[in-house]
Amino acid sequence: MVRIRVETRSVLRSLPLVVAAAALTAGAVIGFGPAGSPIPRAATPATLTAASPEPPRVAGAWEPVEVSTAPLSWPVADAIGPQVRLYEQPDVAHPRVPVLDNPTWERLAVVFAVLEERGPWLRVRVSARPNGFEAWVEKAEVSQREVPNHVVIEVGARRVTVLRGDEVLLRETAAMGSDATPTPLGSFFVDGVVDVPYDDGPYGAFQVSVSGFSDVLHTFGGGVGQIAVHGTDRPDLLGQPVSNGCIRLSNDAITRMAALTPTGTPVEIVA
Would you say residue 257 has pLDDT above 60? Predict the structure, then answer.
């Protein structure tokens, strides 16, 4: 058995000029990119082992290649009847919220973010207090689908980003909750998209309702203190902490966001 230790740079220097140039050109052809693109980094040092009857082996230390792990789809479940039963565990009725009416009191269809599938059961995230509320539902009481995008809301940066995998589809400056009425943090989902009748009102062109609730306000404007991403008639306040917990965007931005975030779209609100 013969073991040969080689340094990458010394190999290129030892090759005749024509052969070395041919090797680099071939690399461009077989998958390293067109001529003029950066030369891929080789292992340094590399060890070549070649001996019969064993096949040749090459060992070395290569820098890891970063591969995106961001999902390209997210599972969602829609209630299909006038009610859907919630369970604390499969076959164990939920003691606090045993049933949800469909549609909701706001006339929105009941939707869940699916977290786990187990036989005839789904573990889901529910649009209800407390934030992060989870339950089990029967597959027979819902229809299943997938959504392609997800939303990241950065409270400190006052920014809303809609992504498909790692691709940024929309990134806009937003107004966030004030110190007295902060925007809640956590993992949520879009539970309703409402085309507001009067674009010049305080809620702008659209409301993208989020399954999160204010930690401070349990009632607001006739509602239950639920937050939303919505437009505004005060674009001069964008980028400031001035809301009652909702996230405000320009009317142009919320119109584009509404088209990208169907119900069930995951929403992550971070500090």
Answer: yes
